[in-house]
């Protein structure tokens, strides 16, 4: 049981508690025994009054538009960027420290953008904005692996293709992939649903996520560049990406080419990556010994496989990355931020 009457444990609110990330956050709070003095579940008026359980106790979902944030110490926001833009400033004004899962404040200079395994040093004090931003779901696993590489060999360029699951669009994304797959299997000529994903994601791949920018890149692709630079503290890091939606229910993958300043020794690289916290390197040479979203295993680890230094250019290597976007890419990172704040006495 993680409900406690100890005074130092924070009173927490989970905004977006009914969503895919909110649901993962509730499960992680239970599994990791995160100590709280009170927990409040918040969502849209559509869900107000619905009952959900946390640590075996029932709680009624409350509507965000009437929620009083002066009654909590810490608020996790996972309800979309526009909701965060509207409501996070008033939550901060009412005294809550906010961990925001959306894109709304990530590039704000007064807001730290934190992956605890990389830049927990940013969590030593309450930020000026009252907000700590949680990075994009594909950026988090990538920077966790780039950090030791940058420290050891220096990085000249990173080229990434992502393979992002339907759950990146929340509950409705998962539901649409399942329904579109069912419709298409029954009749390949039938019109499959294509609202969350256009064209339909069933038996398809879509090289377009989020909105198109003037540069020709998408916002999702721009996030990976800007956020990696900010988290790693490398303002000139060259990261270029193609973000692709694939018909996988949950678990994002990435193929990353990393070109370094010096020649990379493969054995040392594998040792370095494997020594990172909560990273599993799948390095057997037997067929099938690589991670996939369905078979990677431990959902709270970043999984790496197919690590290969290019024979024609030994300063560069490829790696294949798999990580649970709802946990590592969102809820777990947010909770690990809260755990680090508690450990440091900031909460
Ligand atoms: N899915 C991922 O892999 C992932 C990864 C990183 C970051 N994120 C970010 O996390 C956020 C949530 O994503 P999700 O996948 O959990 O989406 P989701 O499954 O669609 O859930 C959305 C949640 O937000 C709530 N909500 C929507 N509009 C609201 C409003 N006007 N006022 C209050 N609550 C509102 C919903 O409440 P109702 O149930 O009442 O509608 C629901 O709890 C998004 O900003 C997303 O970008 C997601």
From TrEMBL:
<feature type="binding site">
    <location>
        <begin position="167"/>
        <end position="168"/>
    </location>
    <ligand>
        <name>NADP(+)</name>
    </ligand>
</feature>
<feature type="binding site">
    <location>
        <position position="164"/>
    </location>
    <ligand>
        <name>substrate</name>
    </ligand>
</feature>
<dbReference type="InterPro" id="IPR005986">
    <property type="entry name" value="Asp_semialdehyde_DH_beta"/>
</dbReference>
<protein>
    <recommendedName>
        <fullName>Aspartate-semialdehyde dehydrogenase</fullName>
        <ecNumber>1.2.1.11</ecNumber>
    </recommendedName>
</protein>
<feature type="binding site">
    <location>
        <position position="245"/>
    </location>
    <ligand>
        <name>substrate</name>
    </ligand>
</feature>
<comment type="function">
    <text>Catalyzes the NADPH-dependent formation of L-aspartate-semialdehyde (L-ASA) by the reductive dephosphorylation of L-aspartyl-4-phosphate.</text>
</comment>
<feature type="binding site">
    <location>
        <position position="325"/>
    </location>
    <ligand>
        <name>NADP(+)</name>
    </ligand>
</feature>
<feature type="binding site">
    <location>
        <position position="106"/>
    </location>
    <ligand>
        <name>phosphate</name>
    </ligand>
</feature>
<dbReference type="InterPro" id="IPR036291">
    <property type="entry name" value="NAD(P)-bd_dom_sf"/>
</dbReference>
<comment type="subunit">
    <text>Homodimer.</text>
</comment>
<dbReference type="InterPro" id="IPR012080">
    <property type="entry name" value="Asp_semialdehyde_DH"/>
</dbReference>
<feature type="active site" description="Acyl-thioester intermediate">
    <location>
        <position position="137"/>
    </location>
</feature>
<feature type="domain" description="Semialdehyde dehydrogenase NAD-binding">
    <location>
        <begin position="11"/>
        <end position="126"/>
    </location>
</feature>
<keyword id="KW-0791">Threonine biosynthesis</keyword>
<feature type="binding site">
    <location>
        <begin position="46"/>
        <end position="47"/>
    </location>
    <ligand>
        <name>NADP(+)</name>
    </ligand>
</feature>
<dbReference type="Pfam" id="PF02774">
    <property type="entry name" value="Semialdhyde_dhC"/>
</dbReference>
<keyword id="KW-0028">Amino-acid biosynthesis</keyword>
<feature type="active site" description="Proton acceptor">
    <location>
        <position position="252"/>
    </location>
</feature>
<dbReference type="InterPro" id="IPR012280">
    <property type="entry name" value="Semialdhyde_DH_dimer_dom"/>
</dbReference>
<dbReference type="InterPro" id="IPR000534">
    <property type="entry name" value="Semialdehyde_DH_NAD-bd"/>
</dbReference>
<keyword id="KW-0521">NADP</keyword>
<comment type="similarity">
    <text>Belongs to the aspartate-semialdehyde dehydrogenase family.</text>
</comment>
<keyword id="KW-0220">Diaminopimelate biosynthesis</keyword>
<feature type="binding site">
    <location>
        <begin position="18"/>
        <end position="21"/>
    </location>
    <ligand>
        <name>NADP(+)</name>
    </ligand>
</feature>
<keyword id="KW-0560">Oxidoreductase</keyword>
<dbReference type="Pfam" id="PF01118">
    <property type="entry name" value="Semialdhyde_dh"/>
</dbReference>
<keyword id="KW-0457">Lysine biosynthesis</keyword>
<comment type="pathway">
    <text>Amino-acid biosynthesis; L-methionine biosynthesis via de novo pathway; L-homoserine from L-aspartate: step 2/3.</text>
</comment>
<keyword id="KW-0486">Methionine biosynthesis</keyword>
<comment type="pathway">
    <text>Amino-acid biosynthesis; L-lysine biosynthesis via DAP pathway; (S)-tetrahydrodipicolinate from L-aspartate: step 2/4.</text>
</comment>
